[in-house]
Inverse folding.
């Protein structure tokens, strides 16, 4: 973890290491199985490595482009820059670039491979709905992701699942256009084996990434609450943002759903209890409960509970 005054979380660090180690083992086995089944996957591996490199080095630009975000100066957004300046000074960490997305969806996210290349983006819908103290809590949450370096880890981990899908397509088209002499029973067996292995790898990756994502959100809530000393204010922001998102038409949320793992709160949450097991975020109730425990630990050092918490 980079040196900052954000509350360190050894459990998060351990979980990130274990997740990346397990994913590494899964994908080594995956590539080995594909080499045996398909005889050659060099092209797929090269393409996947190139895409992963692009995702890692240009994740900030890709995310801003996808969310229609733009970098803003202190003159353009003095309130936003002021809050981030204060938080970075308190946390003793480099100030990230600051961006705004002209979306009504109230949300925020941090991206970038490290603290020196990080970007914190906030939607206009979030700034319009939150008081300055609440906005500070949300931004402290996002900055903690940068300090914990889990942004880079979740970016890499999330992208690895794409490899499985890429290999499936490669196998499908190579058999589809490989010639009539290849369309025999053995080819069908190999094709089904590739599909099965790919599906299994994707399922394992999905579960590992979701488990890490849920924990990192709780870790970010805790680090933000400890830095600001106002867990009840962060709880108020969570409650307000989650309630407002629930009132936005579903069709308007689906376009942003792909970024759930990076958002402060999910754009479109799970609708059933079972679905929560596969969610990128803990339930609102779980996050509020965790913040209430921190409030008790601090003895409400940050002040009286904020309205709406």
């Amino acid at each position: 973890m980079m040196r900052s005054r954000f509350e360190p979380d050894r459990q998060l660090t351990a979980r990130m290491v274990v997740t990346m180690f397990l994913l590494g083992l899964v994908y080594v086995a995956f590539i080995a199985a594909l080499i045996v089944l398909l005889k050659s996957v060099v092209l797929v591996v090269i393409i996947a490595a190139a895409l992963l490199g692009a995702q890692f080095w240009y994740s900030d630009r890709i995310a801003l482009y996808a969310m229609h975000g733009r970098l803003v100066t202190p003159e353009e957004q003095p309130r936003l820059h002021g809050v981030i300046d204060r938080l970075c000074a308190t946390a003793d960490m480099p100030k990230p670039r600051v961006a705004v997305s002209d979306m009504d969806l109230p949300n925020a996210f941090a991206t970038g491979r490290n603290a020196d290349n990080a970007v914190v983006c906030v939607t206009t819908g979030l700034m319009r709905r939150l008081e300055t103290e609440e906005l500070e809590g949300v931004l402290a949450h996002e900055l903690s992701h940068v300090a914990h370096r889990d942004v880079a880890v979740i970016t890499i981990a999330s992208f690895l699942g794409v490899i499985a899908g890429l290999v499936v397509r490669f196998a499908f088209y190579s058999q589809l256009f490989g010639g009539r002499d290849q369309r025999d029973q053995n080819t069908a067996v190999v094709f089904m084996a590739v599909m099965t292995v790919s599906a299994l790898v994707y399922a394992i990756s999905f579960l590992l990434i979701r488990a890490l994502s849920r924990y990192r959100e709780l870790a970010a809530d805790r680090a933000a609450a400890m830095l600001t000393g106002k867990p009840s204010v962060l709880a108020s922001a969570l409650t307000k943002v989650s309630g407002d998102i629930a009132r936005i038409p579903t069709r308007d949320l689906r376009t942003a759903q792909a970024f759930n793992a990076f958002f402060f709160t999910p754009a479109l949450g799970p609708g059933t209890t079972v679905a929560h097991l596969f969610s990128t975020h803990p339930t609102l109730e779980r996050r509020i409960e965790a913040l209430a425990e921190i409030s008790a630990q601090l003895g409400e050092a940050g002040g009286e509970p904020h309205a709406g918490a």
